[in-house]
Amino acid sequence: MNDVIVDAAEIGRRTIRKSDWVACNAAFIDCRTPGSDKKENYSFIGVGVSQNSSQYINLTEKHGFNTGAAGMPNGISNNLHLHFTAEVFVNLGGEFRLRWGVDGKQGEYISHDGDIISIPTWIFRGFTNEGPDDGVLYTVLGRDDTGGIIWGPSVLREAESYGLHLTADNQLIDTVAGDVLPEDVPLITPMKQHYIDELTSYSVEEMRSRVVQPGDRRYDSHALLCTAVDGGRVDLALVIGYGMTQNRRQVPSIHEPHSFNLAWVRAEAGQGVLRYRQQQTQALLIKSGQWEVVLNGDPATALRFGPGDSFSVPVGAWRSFTCVENGESGAGEVLVINGGDDRVYPEWAPEVVEAAAAADATIDPNGYLAPLGVMVTATEDD
Fold first, then answer.
1. Is 245 helix (H, G, I), strand (E, B) or coil?
2. Residue 289, SS3?
3. Rounded to whole angstroms, what are the CA distances from 52 to 16, 169, 308?
């Protein structure tokens, strides 16, 4: 892999702090529907499924996934809609009632802080904030092109009564604001009932299997080569996909391909993931604590991040991230998002490899952790 040096301008471009969030209050066709008219939609990486061409996007570069967020005051809902690609919610604080089915009555789940929920594709879903006004659902959407969304029939009909229409190319038309209905692009009409009848049903138990609560996380303290080295002692909990684990026995809570993988990294102050690089896109989202990210192996690039901040690491760039201050309830937490459904194979910096070898740890030909003494003996026998 060729060296990728990230300059200050590029680092700044890829830094998305909580203070950089820019809300759009008219991102979707239900923006005038009572009970849904105070939603705030955010697009961080990629446009996501926003239907408003004026939606602000922090980072437009393709990652193989999109990230964003929904912020809603208490009692405000995001109406029922259907996604073609993966939609994953990360609860960053608050209480949300998720419901699914074309009428929202197929099932419900109450989400709390720290939950990750993977909603199946091709089902209608919606959610309501039943907690504090500052509750936020962070979203990770599959693929660069999500294909937009399909709204529930009742949502489209009600929006039309407020002068809002949606074109087949996913553009919001607001006749009240003076927009003219296009003549060359058809309008989206409600899904026909026989198509609705063919959609998959999910029980509450089936949906619960797609939720990873904080108590469901299975942390492993020997999941990465760097964990053999002081300063690199982190715990890794797989959520979606195998990601970058190097423990051959570690398995994710959710296996289904999403076009990305998710894992929690937890560390006490002074510990973190030591210097490595990889060929996949990667975004880091800080959940708790204060973390320092260093690029190029150069301490002069160090950036400090807190809860709600995120950073997109360039493919092939050397990076490390270290907890410098624990969270209020303990160790700091980072959500690591890697592009692709395949395993990630971190390339560790020479000093990490050397220090791990001194602790009798190495990586076997299959990309998993192994005792160095065993591997040396096997090589000598050959």
1. coil
2. coil
3. 21, 12, 24
Range 85-108 average pLDDT: 97
Q: In one letter, which amino acid is 354? A: E
pLDDT digits (tens, 9 = 90+) for 318-331: 999 999 999 998 99
End-to-end, the C-alpha distance of the chain in Å comes to 28
Looking at the chain, list the stretches that DSSP marks H as alpha helix, in order from N- to C-terminal side: 8-13, 153-160, 193-196, 204-208, 350-358, 372-381
pLDDT digits (tens, 9 = 90+) for 264-292: 999 999 999 999 999 999 999 999 999 99
291: helix, coil or strand? strand
Are the C-beta atoms of 14 and 4 separated by less than 8 Å?
no
Tell me, rounded to whole angstroms, the distance of Cα 251 from its chain centroid. 19
State mean pLDDT over 73-96.
Answer: 95
DSSP classification of residue 107: E
Sheet holding 65-71, edge to edge: 57-59, 40-45, 65-71, 136-142, 87-91, 116-119, 211-212
